[in-house]
């Protein structure tokens, strides 16, 4: 089968045309053929669109569940990023690796947390995904939820025993990044759940300084004000 068959395969996968896809499979099409230098397969295309029926049909007919694109993205990662929980379920039910990661170390639960896809996060956690999974820079799912202000995701992760004080490679904790990004509700959640407010002394940029000063005023009863005396290193602000 040539270019025409390849186009038909990707068109049917992208449009959720399972009737056409079944016909192509019956004719013997290679469901793992790739499109272009990106290395995208029909499974990747269907996962990105959230076409669960197409994903299931491809998997039942030999699609490689953990096949990665040239950028290192497996179908599970793609579906988690897009928030397609039913596709995520199908992929894992067909043997997908829950800890599959990109070259930078980012797993499905990390990207789902970053994007605020709480139902995907809950499902992955329920299937045993590592809540402390990190990128190469050691940023955990909770770190990304805090950074982006995804409160429901953060609350779930904390309730599921995610480490409140896990820090990135530069020593930034979820509370510190939430303050830096000006996420007041997230800061409230983290403090209420027991995050170390003394982390304010470690923050070194102006925005974090201003935000943490406000926090210290609001939570003066829970902070040792005399000890929280750091000042920003203005020259380090980029």
Automatic annotation (TrEMBL):
Tell me which UniProt keywords the record has, alphabetically: ANK repeat
**Pfam families for this protein:** Ank_2
UniProt cross-references to SUPFAM superfamilies, sorted A to Z: Ankyrin repeat
Spans of the ANK repeats are: 38-70, 71-103, 104-136, 137-169, 170-202
Read off the InterPro entries from this record.
Answer: Ankyrin_rpt, Ankyrin_rpt-contain_sf
**PROSITE patterns tied to this protein:** ANK_REP_REGION, ANK_REPEAT
| Signal peptide coordinates | none
What protein name does the entry list? Uncharacterized protein
